[in-house]
Design a protein that fits this description.
Number of helices of chain A: 5
Shape of chain A: globular
Radius of gyration of chain A: 16 Å
Largest sheet of chain A: 4 strands, mixed
Structural class of chain A: alpha+beta
Strand content of chain A: 25-35%
Oligomer: homodimer
Strand order of the largest sheet of chain A: 1-2-3-4
Number of strands of chain A: 6
Helix content of chain A: 25-40%
Order of helices and strands of chain A: HHEEEHEHEEH
Amino acid sequence: MATIDDCQSIHQLIVALSIFEKEPHQVDINVEDLIRDGFSDNPLFRCLVAQREQKIVGMALFYPRYSTWKGPTFHLEDLIVQKEHTHQGIGKQLFKEFIAYAYRQGVQRIEWAVLNWNKNAIDFYKKSGAKILEDWRLVQMTRQQMNQYLN
Amino acid sequence: MATIDDCQSIHQLIVALSIFEKEPHQVDINVEDLIRDGFSDNPLFRCLVAQREQKIVGMALFYPRYSTWKGPTFHLEDLIVQKEHTHQGIGKQLFKEFIAYAYRQGVQRIEWAVLNWNKNAIDFYKKSGAKILEDWRLVQMTRQQMNQYLN
């Protein structure tokens, strides 16, 4: 599991993923936010990290969710490997470690989201035995939209 | 907010939604699970309920999530209104109450999922100012699939 000292590297990986996902200006949180949100008495997430030569090159960040059909689940928010370290099995290792952790915790399901043009990721997940739900869509409302709706 | 005494009605609404979503055999949790998971010292969800003539006719069940771009968010897992009580503004009232609660708690985003054939729900959400993310897909792995992947 990640420690407070890893938050700088975790933040760098988050920024790198936002660039890959073509939304580089969307990262509003900083290293201090990650420290407060992930390493206080009631952490909002947990994070597994992969290292090569004492440096963090990948991470799997997740947190609990709840299914009204299945009970407690885990959500994998980010699975990120540094571009320079792809094709070395690091993503698979992190993914497997996350699944093993979730399984030990007894959750009945794990879930995450994938961009429909990210063919490599979709192939990876399909091979793992996971199911892509084609008929569900995500919906989001920003704080600004919430404010508009309420007024 | 719902209390332990509401769990029987909450469970009935969950079962009713599973029938509407054409997956009636997927509800594995029972009333005792809801009581334990939602009303212990560290509840896994919160639930708003709507009443008509002292009976619960609708609910909005949600819990915290975490965005590595925005920080703490809320996820609306279920927004359900009894079939006999639709078209009375109850869903809108619960939705608004959820948004107001999330806004007061200071989250930067709320999110949920919708079935792509549920036109009424999609129209309702679009009108609210929420954004449907067309390019993301949900992925799930059951406990059985996790076990297969690990072995």
